[in-house]
What we know:
It contains 10 helices and 7 strands. The chain has 227 residues and is of the alpha/beta class.
Amino acid sequence: MIRVLLVDxxxxxxxxxRALLSLETDIEVVAEAGDGExxxxxxxxxxxxxxxxxxxxxxxxxxxxxxxxxxxxxxAGVHVxxxxxxxxxxxxxxxxxxxxxxxxVKDILPDDLVHSVRVAARGEALLAPALTRRLIDRHLAQPxxxxxxxxxxxxxAREREAVTLVARGxxxxxxxxxxxxxxxxAKTHVNRAMTKLDVRDRAQLVVLAYESxxxxxxxxxxxxxxx
Length: 227
């Protein structure tokens, strides 16, 4: 059972999402909150698999809420998905940097909402849709501040290749096909890269890939292997 916490200051949005998700036999909405502070308290109490968090809320907004979830070891298993009214919300990239697993627009289709919750619960970032790719292209062309490229020297050549493909929005299965390896090996490369780069999830891995220059907008830059 996938446990979901809804955090949004609009009761109508929360009730609509609850109604949709409650139709699924493998998803349970465990609690609702009207602001980030309340959401954090409920997250500590219920330890949900997924938090759907509005980006703009009173008391504590979605970015600050996401940052505090990411910084709390007790909430390491909680995957935050940020909700926005706008497809190109200027704060979405800040949310990804803060530790969000991805983001959704509130007018998402019901089937896509359910699919996104399941993807987030598996620990996969919601970074493949064209909406997210456009946001990354727009905001990371000149990332502030840039991550030091030297951090990539911690990775093997295969790990860098896997990270590059993650940043291009590929799933583990797609990475495996591109690298001609098994999906399990692809997942291992990605997980080891995340550990070496000290990032929480695939979303932060994508941000680091762009900010370090491993991947560039409109093309791919692959640094030579470390000796």
